[in-house]
Amino acid sequence: MSTQAYLALAVALFVIGALGFLLRRNAIVAFMSVELMLNAANLAFVTFARQHGGLDGQVASFFVMVVAAAEVVIGLAIIVAVYRARRSASVDDASLLKF
Amino acid sequence: MIEIPALTGDLFAFVVCAPLMVLLAIGIVLCRKPVHSALCMAGVMVGLAVLYAAQDAPFLFVVQIIVYTGAILMLFLFVVMLIGVDTRDSVVETLKGHRFWTIVAILGLTALILLAVSQAVFVGGPTGLANANAQHGGNAEGLAALLFTRYVVLLEATSALLITAAIGAMVLAHGEKLREVKRQPEKAAERIERYAKQGIHPGPDPNSGVYAGTNAISAPALLPDGSVAEHSVSKVLTSRGAVVAVDDLRGATGGAFEDIRRVHAELEGEDK
To answer: At what angle do helices A3-23 and B98-119 cross, to 10 degrees?
Structure first.
C-alpha cells in the first residue's frame, strides 16, 4: 500500500483524536483521545521509517509508546485524585483556577 | 528465537483495517459511556498493531499489543470501574459556542495537515526495511542496535521518566487515612484508663473452665467462691445460649467425690 494512504489514515486518526479531546468533557474519554493522537503519530513514524528504509522511525515510535505509558499512568492518577476531591470525572468541575 | 512473520498482504491488511479503525475511532468520540469508548479504543489499537505488522515492524506490532491493549487499556478500564461506569457527559454547553468553534478548529486543522501531507511527493514505492533489517539480522536486533548505541542516552532518560512516573502515580493515588490507627501504646493507655474509671480488669480474660467431663470453651470457669466467671466464655457463645450449665458439670465431679468419700468411709470402717 502506498505511503500516502497510510499517512491519510494517520491524519484521520489524529484529527478524530483532536476532535474528541476538544468535544468530550469526560476526563477519561478526553484522555483516550490524546492516546489516539499519539498513536496516529506513531503510525506516521512507522510509515516514514518504511518509506525511507531506516529503523530510526520505529525507534522514535517505540519511545513515543514509552512516554505514552508514563503519561497514562500519571494522567489517570490525576483523574482519580480529582475524582476523590470533586466526586466527578468531568473536566468542567476542576475549575478552581478559573475564578 | 521465534520469528514473527511480517504480513505480506499489505494491501489486504490496510483495506480491512483502515475503515474499521476510522469507524472505531469515531466510536471513541461518540460513545456516551466511557466503557464503550475503551472497547472502541481496544479495536483501534489492535488495528494499528496489524498495520505495524504490515509495514515491516514486527517488534512494534508485539509492543503495541502488549503495551497498549495489554497494559494501558487495562489501566483505563480500571479507572473507569473506579470512577463509575455510569458517569455520562452532560450535554449542556458550559462555554458558549463550544461545539461550533471546535468543529471550525478541527476543520482548519484537517485542512492544514492534509495540505502539509499532500505537499510531500514520494517517487516510487516505499524503500522497505529489508536492507536495514538485514544489517543486524532482524527487526528486533536492528532496533536493539540503534537503541543501545545512538539512542542510549535517550533510553536511560526513559528509565528515569518511568521511575518518576511510577512514584508520581503512587503519590497521587495514595488515599488519606480515614481515621487514626491505634497502636500498642494507645491501646495500653486506653486499657489502664478504663481500669481507673470503670474498674474493668486490664489484663487478659480468664480461660474457660476445666472439669472432669469437659474442658471445652463453652464450659465457664469458676471463681474461688464457686460462682461463674462471666468473662471466661466468649460473648458469642453466651448470646447463642451455648454455655454449658455449671451444675451439670458439677454432677460428675460431685458424684466422683461422693464415691471416694464412701470408699474411704468403708475402708475406715473395716480398719476399726
So the answer is: 160
Q: Is the pLDDT of residue A11 over 60?
A: yes
Tell me whether residues B41 and A50 touch, CB distance under 8 A.
no
pLDDT above 50 (res A64): yes
Residue A26 backbone phi and psi in degrees, to 5 = -75, 125
Dihedral sign from CA coordinates of A13, A14, A20, A23: negative
Please judge whether B79 and A26 are an interchain contact, meaning their C-beta atoms are less than 8 angstroms apart. no
Nearest alpha carbon to residue A78 among B66, B75, B159, B193: B75
Using CA coordinates, name the residue in chain B closest to A95: B94
Question: What's the pLDDT tens digit per position in B12-30?
Answer: 888 889 999 999 999 999 9
Whether B168 sits inside 8 A of A77 (CB atoms) is: yes
Q: Which residues 6+ apart lie within 8 Å of B241 measured at CB?
A: none
Q: Which residue has the cell 458558549?
A: B96
Domains for chain A: give ranges and CATH numbers. 3-87 (1.10.287.3510)
Query: Could you say which DSSP state residue B212 is in?
Result: S
Chain A nearest-CA residue for B41: A32
